[in-house]
Amino acid sequence: MGASHRLELASEPVELLGDRALYWPARRRLMIADLHLGKADVFRRAGIGLPAGGTVHDLQRLSELLQRTGASELWILGDILHGAAPQAAWREQWDGWRERHRGVRLVGIAGNHDRALVSTPLGLELVDECVEEGPFALRHEPLRHPRLHVICGHLHPLAAVPGMRRRWPAFWLRPGLTVLPAFSYFTAGVVAEPAAGEQLVACVDGDAIPLPLR
Questions:
Q1: DSSP per residue over 11-80, as a string?
Q2: In CA terms, which of 6, 46, 66, 74 is 20 to 30 Å from 104?
Q3: How far apart are the C-alpha atoms of 154 and 33, rounded to whole Å?
């Protein structure tokens, strides 16, 4: 596992992990966004080819993050699914992964792709669209909270890193709001344009690299 970036959000210590996850040590909670399970299956059924193995790779990364952090909880902040959830290969892979990590509390917040989530038994606990805990409001979409620091997903931010041609998934640190990168490797994104006082932390080959503050 690569280098992480430790900082405080709303005076609370957190760790940004280069494999696109945030760890909240005080709650032993790992947080990701935009897992998009079944995305490759949706594309293939539409006649669009995607490489095999995406779900296996994403779940392996999740296992490594749980082991590295010792997290007792995994929260997925929206877009757990990418659409319908037929009995495709990814469902078997997910069920096996969930069984191996049955001691981890798994919590999900529904996103805009999660209409099928209520009727899909994935072994997770569904909570409200906005959960307030400590100094944070956890949700899917980047909507500000009147009192709390929002941690969310949805935007799939990308960062331009000096000296590199490709764009990298990134945490977008904004006043009162932190946007997580999309966890799924098969998910595209939009290059973030930080305003004054904002910062990107790029996820480059497993390393969390803070870019200059704007």
A1: TEEEEEEBTTEEEEGGGTEEEEB---BTHHHHHHHTT----TTHHHHHHHHHHHHHHHHT-SEEEEES--
A2: 6
A3: 7
Give the C-alpha separation, 87 to 120, whole Å: 10
Q: Domains of the chain, with CATH numbers? A: 5-210 (3.60.21)
Instruction: Give, in order, the Cα–Cα distances in Å from 4 to each of 94, 124, 138, 174, 196.
Output: 27, 27, 21, 19, 24
Which phi and psi (to 5°) does residue 160 adopt? Answer: -90, 120
Residue-level length of the chain: 214
Q: Which residue has the tokens 């957190």?
A: 14
For residue 208, is it left (φ>0), alpha (ψ between -120 and 50) or beta? beta
CA distances to 22, 35, 43, 44 from 47, in Å:
35, 22, 6, 5
Token look-up 């500000």 returns 144
Distance of CA 32 to the CA centre of its chain: 3
Give mean pLDDT in consecutive 10-residue pieces for the chain, a chain of 214 residues: 93 98 98 84 48 78 97 94 64 93 94 65 89 97 97 96 93 98 90 96 97 93
Of the candidates 136, 129, 131, 181, the residue with the CA atom closest to the CA atom of residue 154: 181
Q: How many CB atoms lie within 10 A of CB 6?
A: 11
Which pairing describes strands 73-77 and 29-32: parallel, antiparallel, or unpaired? parallel
Find out whether 138 and 31 touch, Cβ atoms under 8 Å.
yes
**Tokens representing 206?**
């497993």
